Amino acid sequence: MADGSVVPIDRKVVRKFKTEEDVAVALAKYIADLSDKFIKVKGSFTVVLSGGTLIDTMRKLVEPPYLHGVDWTKWYIFWVDERVVPLDSPDSNYKLAHDGFLSKVSIPSHQIYPIHYKPGPQGPEFAARDYEERLRKLVEKKILPLSPVTGFPIFDLMLLGMGPCGHVASLFPNRSQQNDKKDWVTFITDSPKPPPPRITFTFPVINTASEIAMVVTGLEVSLATHVALKSKHHDFGLQGPLPVQKVSAEVLLTWFLDENAAFQQ
Ligand SMILES: O=C(O)[C@H](O)[C@@H](O)[C@H](O)[C@H](O)COP(=O)(O)O
Predict the structure, then answer these.
(1) Residue 50 φ/ψ, nearest 5 degrees
(2) What does the record give as its pathway (predicted)?
(3) What is the whole-number distance in angstroms between the Cα of residue 55 and the centre of ligand 1?
(4) I need a surface site. Which of 31, 52, 54, 108 has the fewest CB within 10 A?
């Protein structure tokens, strides 16, 4: 199916498109519709970004009709993971989002939450603790609600990419961070994807989000996509599931795939 038709399975839908351009068109509408819905219901829209190709795939959102149709003033922006580098570094997920998205829309700057960067070996741990503290303050201010079910903060929308090894955020196979059930934000100093020092939301926070979009395009992710959506078993030389297999959303997890990523479906 290459028309974006929706196949509902539990709290998960898979939307398959022919090209990456078709994914970009559908993703913009999906995000704008959720923005309208959440702002109507709760007066704000909390959005969590990833790095990688996601920001480019969001490109239609900064074009008409969304550019002037979305109420950007109600948006709050967070990062599901960030490389621990200065914010103006070419490796920074903040810079990527700033250049491709945030600089083009009118989200108030105090509603954008980049990491606080500190150089040196303590930088990753500092950035993770600091980010978690800032999230806890937003819970106190009632900007982020806490889930009565999980005890973790509820974000309205999380936009995730996936690597060929099945990683999401900076939760990688063969790294302990994917098993953290206590922290909201943790850090990694030996990420297999460069650069090595990063912070990342943990799975309990990711899976407490209301809506999650897995935005996955390209042939190199087709095997991990196949494992996540079809075979469930894998031959990646690991014990246990791939990180992506642990993703679920409170309301709905929506996969956006192009024909290449869906090649093995
Ligand atoms: O720091 C990063 O690189 C990201 O936040 C990471 O989690 C990304 O979302 C995936 O690696 C997918 O990356 P691509 O979209 O580039 O395949």
Answers:
(1) -110, 180
(2) Carbohydrate degradation; pentose phosphate pathway
(3) 10
(4) 108
